[in-house]
Amino acid sequence: MVDGTELYRKVMLTISGSKPVKRLSLKYGRRLARKFIAGEHLEDALQQIEILNSRGIMVTLDHLGEGITHLDEAEGYRDEYVRLVDGIAERKVNANVSLKPTQMGMAIDGEACYRNISAVVRQAAGHRIFVRIDMEDSPFTQRTIDLVTRLHSDGLTNVGTVVQAYLFRTMDDVRTLAKAGVKLRLVKGAYKEPASIAYQRKSDVVSSFKRIIRFHLDQGIYTAIATHDDTIINWVKEYARRNRLPKTAFEFQMLYGLRSNEQASLAKQGYRIRCYMPYGSMWYPYYTRRLAEKPANLMLVLKNMFH
Length: 307
Known about the structure:
Blueprint: H1 4-15, H2 19-28, H3 30-33, H4 42-54, E1 58-63, H5 71-91, E2 95-99, H6 110-126, E3 131-133, H7 141-153, E4 159-164, H8 170-179, E5 184-187, H9 202-218, E6 223-226, H10 230-242, E7 250-255, H11 260-268, E8 272-279, H12 284-293, H13 295-305
Parallel strand pairs: 1-2, 1-8, 2-3, 3-4, 4-5, 5-6, 6-7, 7-8
Helix pairs in contact: 1-12, 5-6, 8-9, 9-10, 12-13
Catalytic activity: L-proline + a quinone = (S)-1-pyrroline-5-carboxylate + a quinol + H(+)
EC number: 1.5.5.2
Binding site for substrate: 100, 289-290
């Protein structure tokens, strides 16, 4: 049985793909989208990074874009990421990089995607900056894992990826990637996936999430835990305390514009906290996933539409 929160998320992800809903969101949602997005330009994002760094919060910077239709679009994103990496280095801010494989051409040409991403990773390696390859929906799961392990085998080890707890396959993927030395961000999962490959109940997703977090911490591998769930955060804190794990053994990650006070509070408590900060003009897909997370986010938009 699917609980209310999961039903809301599935409905939102379904209707957000309709053209009328997209038109309304683009008309009324842009101002509200700024809550979740640092700005449309790199300079906007770099300024926001400096503000967060001053509060003890690290950043992973994402230039928005996914689902491209032509490889020249991918080349444009590649060039922007190279500029982004150079901008982080020049400003000497505490930030790494996140990018999506489909914005680099994965759905069109796998080899072109690899060349685009490897160019960004090599540029980042020259500045000692880490690159995270975001995990998208299930058609790209294995291809993303293969891409990251290939980068490692080619000597580019300043790159990692993401695993999603709601997929049945994830524990096996975590074991495989841990052996390969690939650094992971652990998440619950944000896409609509069928019951044949993914847990549908929130309780099952949470149980899976805890299993992969526990495995990662028990292996002594630095662990990035991306969640806004206080139950998970407190469970991680207690697990680390009981097992005498230092606060430097893991980091929490949260999204830009959400729970800002809690992010600052974790930093003050001595925990490592990283903010996922997107910027750019292609905000709609990212924005709809944020709306799908909880009804309160949608209410903000509805109130704005009637003002």
